[in-house]
Design a protein that fits this description.
There is one protein chain. The protein is of the alpha+beta class. The protein has a single domain (5-109, 124-188), classed as 3-Layer(aba) Sandwich (L-fuculose-1-phosphate Aldolase), CATH 3.40.225.10. 38% of the residues lie in helices and 15% in strands. It is built from 6 helices and 8 strands. The protein has an 8-stranded mixed sheet, with helices on both faces. α2 (76-85) packs parallel to α4 and α3 packs across α5 (166-189). It is globular and about 50 Å long. This is Class II aldolase/adducin family protein. Pfam families: Aldolase_II. One of its GO terms (biological process) is pentose catabolic process. One of its GO terms (molecular function) is metal ion binding.
Length: 213
């Protein structure tokens, strides 16, 4: 299906504001992108949520060459690596949300303490190994961690999620922050009890039947 670039740009602009308003990309600390036919539209470097406009998004090809617009986000390699690795990926959302950053600094995955962890594709949400932002090494680490997953933490950095639509990518980006907050709260209350693989399999069967999650 041929999508209107104008419509995709508008969706991205609205999404960036939503992420900013919900505290997921404060102080220009995140970036988003979406496929648009045979190109990618990505937020520009240093973009701020409240004032980003649809025309500000940069059109690039899958090799990272700018086709229209200014300077793309410094995390262009990470976005492109996901699109190349996952042909079904239609959008990518990278955030520096507080709870995710806190857990990412511990360099540990979010374990299966809640059944919604299973909505990301497995029994945990992994943490990609550290590498400098904007680097090819970070892009490679992220692709490795996203095998069979819709999102992961980035060690000492933040979180990233992808989706088969922009709405799904945003849902996962917001959900991982909510789960990170809940996991931290559970750890303060005691030692969280983790679900078993059998319990996750039951969740996946039920979610598929009910089209849930």
């Amino acid at each position: 299906m041929i999508e209107s670039e104008t419509a995709v740009r508008r969706q991205l602009s609205n999404t960036y504001r939503y992420l900013h308003d919900h505290g997921l990309t404060e102080q220009a600390s995140g970036n988003i992108s979406a496929r648009c036919n045979d190109h990618i539209l990505i937020s520009p470097g240093g973009a701020g949520g409240p004032d980003i406009c649809a025309d500000a998004f940069v059109r690039i090809d899958l090799e990272g060459q700018v086709k229209c617009g200014g300077t793309p986000s410094s995390e262009i390699l990470m976005h492109l690596a996901i699109y190349r690795a996952k042909s079904e990926a239609m959008a990518v959302v990278h955030t520096h949300s507080s709870a995710c950053v806190g857990l990412a600094c511990c360099r540990k995955p979010i374990p299966g303490f809640h059944y919604l962890i299973g909505s990301f594709g497995g029994v945990d949400i992994p943490c990609a190994d550290y590498a400098c932002f904007g680097s090819r090494a970070l892009a490679d680490n992220v692709v490795d961690s996203l095998e069979n997953r819709y999102a992961c933490l980035l060690a000492n950095h933040g979180a990233i999620a992808w989706g088969r639509s922009l709405d799904q990518a945003v849902l996962f980006a917001h959900r991982i922050e909510i789960l990170a907050e809940q996991y931290l709260a559970a750890c303060q209350a005691g030692e969280p009890v983790l679900l078993t693989l059998a319990e996750f399999r039951d969740y996946w069967r039920t979610a598929k039947t009910l089209k849930y999650g």
